[in-house]
Amino acid sequence: MKAVRFAAYGGPDVLDLAEVPEPHAGPGQIRVAVRAAGVNPHDWRTREGQFQRIRPIDLPSGVGQDASGVVDEVGEGVTDIAVGDLVLGRGSNTYAEFAVLSSWARLPSGLTFAEAAGYPSVVETALRVLRLVGVQTGQTLLVSGAAGGVGSAVLQIARDRGIKVIGTASAANQDYVRSLGAIATTYGEGWVDRVRQLGQIDAALDLNGTGVIRGLLDLTGDPSRVITIADLEAPMLGIRFAGVGGNMMDALAETVDLISQGKLHIPVEKSYPLAEASAAHADSQAGHTRGRRVLLV
């Protein structure tokens, strides 16, 4: 089968489309014929080697965690899904024609494969950081990097919970952030003062790691009220890094429920063929994403 691989850490150009052996589902897993794969910052951070000290991997390695597709193999002990079912989920090496998933849910009615591939890790992360930061109904949450995938999910879930949200994003994405129910403002020079003029901040999330941690700490006054998923140096200031973790099956069930109720929609900003994974990574790293980027298989 064809799969995107990298043999050395580096920039987007280290990604290569290669012929590799097909994976197979082990106990408690399923295999899907991939139709689309989500492109996440975690993917290019892994490709750059940012996590090699804490989670070393053997090279050459595949890429990707999120996918949607058609089940074509069911592992021992799996009873809730069958060959031929349409699913979205998370696994490993999903930038490929076939991938093994360890967590999954059935595709909600009306959702395309491209749309579905953008949800798993994004919404799990959004649900987890909202829980960890402890923001409650009636309080105000500041979201730095509000227009990306996780930000799009956070804004909609927080709105549904009665939380007031202020979101920072590029000038081009101000209307998009407002459309998701948040008060929008731009980042860049003077952003802390602009946010302060909008009201008291009870909690804050850093979703893109652009050096905003000290400003978020200044606005909340308490490191326990700030969570980052992108700044690996934040723990030195007493701020929690929450890049991974959580119960994916539970998160997928809640994701499908929110989508089915019309409470959550994350647009696909751009899709790419599998052979253009390097371009997808370059665009993702450049930022200013509105919603999600996906690879079509």
Automatic annotation (TrEMBL):
<protein>
    <submittedName>
        <fullName>NADP-dependent oxidoreductase</fullName>
        <ecNumber>1.-.-.-</ecNumber>
    </submittedName>
</protein>
<dbReference type="Pfam" id="PF13602">
    <property type="entry name" value="ADH_zinc_N_2"/>
</dbReference>
<keyword id="KW-0963">Cytoplasm</keyword>
<keyword id="KW-0694">RNA-binding</keyword>
<dbReference type="InterPro" id="IPR013154">
    <property type="entry name" value="ADH-like_N"/>
</dbReference>
<dbReference type="InterPro" id="IPR002364">
    <property type="entry name" value="Quin_OxRdtase/zeta-crystal_CS"/>
</dbReference>
<keyword id="KW-0560">Oxidoreductase</keyword>
<dbReference type="InterPro" id="IPR011032">
    <property type="entry name" value="GroES-like_sf"/>
</dbReference>
<dbReference type="InterPro" id="IPR036291">
    <property type="entry name" value="NAD(P)-bd_dom_sf"/>
</dbReference>
<dbReference type="InterPro" id="IPR020843">
    <property type="entry name" value="ER"/>
</dbReference>
<dbReference type="GO" id="GO:0016491">
    <property type="term" value="F:oxidoreductase activity"/>
</dbReference>
<dbReference type="InterPro" id="IPR051603">
    <property type="entry name" value="Zinc-ADH_QOR/CCCR"/>
</dbReference>
<dbReference type="Pfam" id="PF08240">
    <property type="entry name" value="ADH_N"/>
</dbReference>
<comment type="subunit">
    <text>Homotetramer.</text>
</comment>
<keyword id="KW-0521">NADP</keyword>
<feature type="domain" description="Enoyl reductase (ER)">
    <location>
        <begin position="10"/>
        <end position="295"/>
    </location>
</feature>
